[in-house]
Amino acid sequence: MAAQAERPNILIIFTDDQGFYDVSYYNKKDIETPAIDALVDAGMRFDNFYANCPVCSPTRAALLTGRQQDLVGVQGVIRDLPLNTWGSWDPNSTSLATVLQRNGYHTALVGKWHLGLESPNLPNDRGFTYFKGFIGDMMDDYYHHRRHGHNFMRLNYSKIDPEGHATDLFSEWAIDYIEDTKHREEPFFLYLAYNAPHSPIQPPEEWVDKVMAREPEIKDLRAKLVALTEHMDYGIGQVIDTLKENGLFEKTLIIFTSDNGGSIRFGSDNGPLRDQKGTVYEGGLRVPAVITWPDKIQAGSSNAHTAMTMDIFPTIMDLCDIEWDGPVDGISFAPVLSGGTVDVSKRAMIFSRREGGLAYNGKTIEAVRIGDYKLLHNSPYEPYEMYNIAKDPYEKNNLLAGLKPNHYGKVPHFNELLARLAKHFQDRGSVPWQPPQ
């Protein structure tokens, strides 16, 4: 779609725990996200976009590799606690940043990393020429930037200790990077990954006051989540304005999405979708998504194409006319962006998560969807559930309810889904997911 001389700059804006309906472009009345809405007005909205996993690290691995996350060793959340970390990125896999770097891009990551705390799995090891941000998982405080007492803020490999709200810092650093690109001839790839609106729900007080004044009936919990999201949206708007001020907006492919569904217990809104972050129900997996590329993608358009985070990798390869012969599990949706279609009716969409604690004890939960049917195991200690997502998008009618497990096979499509899931279990079993001790 793009000759090498016309390759766009690439900006991926990746938010953290942003619920499917925590954007005002879906006419959600208690939240205002004008910067994200403006991307919708300028580009294409995806109404059936899914995160690869209902938690952070695995989806980020899928984004950067185009692979099922557990096939590159990231089965669950990577943490700084040795007895509660559930993945390790395979150093032999190749990142999107590395591929773009090899093809003439200047590559940068600003914000949250969450794919490793030491080499060879730091951003600069994995294709990013420039990194300024946080290598850990969540921050215990948006102003002090610590996790379990550790400072995980870095400028490339060096520890830094900046002052200010993390959302403001990430927006400012992204702006600084874009300003610097005017001195370079090569196109840039900027991966801007916010911690917001992940807990702790800690927006600046003036943003809470603004929401409370506008929405006097709003509950405190929701008000803080809305304020944290709107504060982030303001920063996104500043970043987009910087592109425009430097004549770069028309030359930039912008991809906006979230790493997983919203956390209802912290005030997120997944609308009528069932459940929340951490689960393999729709509320944990379906996320907002918008793609903008002026004059290439029809402004104000939308589509019902079903896509996943890992599809972004091959889509970028197609849009930038880059040959990539390495392994990839994602399916390019580049034709959709120019008004075409991609048949994904027979693809197996697989979602999985490994976790500790009493609810998981190191076991996995997973879901597989082929066509309209979805089989899921939301707890390692509960039976399978199965839904027709086309007819039952809010997962209220379990097709296996009341049946004994040895009768599940009588339900149409069950055996096909189970067999595909079993094949994935075999595939991931060959991939180490813990570093050598």
Question: Any descriptors?
Answer:
437 residues, alpha/beta, Alkaline Phosphatase, subunit A, Arylsulfatase, C-terminal domain, 2 domains, ten-stranded mixed β-sheet, four-stranded antiparallel β-sheet, 11 helices, globular
What CATH calls the topology of the largest domain is Alkaline Phosphatase, subunit A
Overall average residue pLDDT: 96
Q: Work out the helix count.
A: 11
The largest pleated sheet is described as: 10 strands, mixed
- Backbone shape: globular
Q: Helicity, in percent?
A: 25-40%
Number of spatially distinct domains: 2
Report the uncertain regions.
none
- Please write the string of helix (H) and strand (E) elements: EHEHHEEEEEEHEHHEHEEHHEHEEEH
Level-1 CATH class name of the largest domain: Alpha Beta
Q: What's the gyration radius in Å?
A: 21 Å
Beta strands, count: 16
Strand content: 15-25%
CATH architecture of the largest domain: 3-Layer(aba) Sandwich
The CATH homologous superfamily of the largest domain is termed Alkaline Phosphatase, subunit A
Order of strands side by side in the largest beta sheet?
8-7-4-3-9-1-10-11-2-12
Instruction: Give the N-to-C terminal Cα separation.
Output: 46 Å
Structure class: alpha/beta
Structure description:
The chain contains eleven helices and 16 strands. Helix content is 26%, strand content 19%. It is globular and about 65 Å long. β5 and β6 form a beta hairpin. With 437 residues, it is α/β, with parallel strands linked by helices. The strands form three sheets. Strands 8-7-4-3-9-1-10-11-2-12 form a ten-stranded mixed β-sheet, with helices on both faces. Strands 13-14-15-16 form a four-stranded antiparallel β-sheet, covered by helices on one side. α5 packs across α6 (220-245). The chain folds into two domains: 4-337, Alkaline Phosphatase, subunit A, CATH 3.40.720.10; 348-429, Arylsulfatase, C-terminal domain, CATH 3.30.1120.10.
